[in-house]
């Protein structure tokens, strides 16, 4: 199968939203990625040849890529091919691949696209209530909360 691939794939672990038919249909984890496609682990993959939008959350990047299902492994995941996306998202994908390429080999297979360590979260009881409300608000529109998105919520709360 690797003979068919056009580009080098990088091992990673990236949170992914799967948008089909204009709505968030599912979520998964991208476990390898290249310029032309990726593998998405998900318990309920889409149908073979189905087109969708894959939204990746990695490092400080959010990338929306038009994709098509190339292979399906029921209850396990799906291989996807990327189709034409916006120049901004193509640039973001290139930035992600560059970061993955620069990582030592051990990091790629063991820590999988690591984020910097988070400092301990210290909040007051009043802030805890507000944080829960912000997280509830997030989940009204999204099914996944990435570490980056939680950090953004905390930053917004800190500036209030």
* Radius of gyration, whole Å: 17 Å
- Tell me the CATH superfamily of the largest domain: predicted glycosyltransferase like domains
Overall number of strands: 6
Termini distance?
52 Å
Put the structure in a nutshell.
Helix content is 32%, strand content 34%. The chain has helices at 87-102, 105-111, 125-141, 147-158; strands spanning 10-20, 23-33, 37-41, 51-58, 61-73, 77-82.
How would you describe the overall organization of this protein?
- The protein is α+β, with helices and mostly antiparallel strands and 160 residues long.
- The protein has 2 domains: 2-111, Beta Barrel (Thrombin, subunit H), CATH 2.40.10.220; 125-158.
- Helices cover 32% and strands 34% of the residues.
- The protein has 4 helices and 6 strands; from the N terminus they run E-E-E-E-E-E-H-H-H-H.
- The protein has helices at 87-102, 105-111, 125-141, 147-158, and strands at 10-20, 23-33, 37-41, 51-58, 61-73, 77-82.
- The chain has a 6-stranded antiparallel β-barrel.
- Helix 3 (125-141) packs across helix 4.
- It is globular and about 50 Å long.
- It starts with 9 loop residues before the first strand and ends with a helix.
Question: How would you summarize the topology of this molecule?
Answer:
Elements: E1 10-20, E2 23-33, E3 37-41, E4 51-58, E5 61-73, E6 77-82, H1 87-102, H2 105-111, H3 125-141, H4 147-158
Antiparallel strand pairs: 1-2, 1-4, 2-3, 3-6, 4-5, 5-6
Which features characterize this protein?
Thrombin, subunit H, alpha+beta, 160 residues, 2 domains
């Amino acid at each position: 199968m690797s003979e068919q691939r056009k580009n080098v794939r990088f091992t990673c672990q990236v949170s992914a939203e799967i948008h089909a038919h204009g709505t968030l249909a599912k979520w998964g984890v991208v476990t390898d990625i290249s310029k032309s496609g990726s593998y998405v682990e998900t318990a309920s993959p889409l149908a073979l040849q189905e087109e969708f939008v894959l939204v990746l959350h990695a490092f400080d990047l959010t990338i929306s890529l038009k994709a098509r299902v190339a292979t399906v492994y029921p209850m396990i995941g799906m291989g996807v091919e990327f189709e034409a996306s916006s120049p901004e998202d193509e640039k973001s994908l290139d930035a992600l691949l560059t970061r993955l390429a620069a990582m030592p080999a051990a990091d790629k297979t063991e820590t999988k696209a690591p984020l910097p360590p988070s400092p301990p979260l210290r909040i007051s009881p009043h802030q805890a209530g507000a944080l829960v409300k912000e997280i509830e608000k997030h989940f009204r529109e999204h099914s996944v909360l990435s570490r980056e998105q939680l950090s953004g919520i905390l930053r917004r709360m800190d500036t209030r």
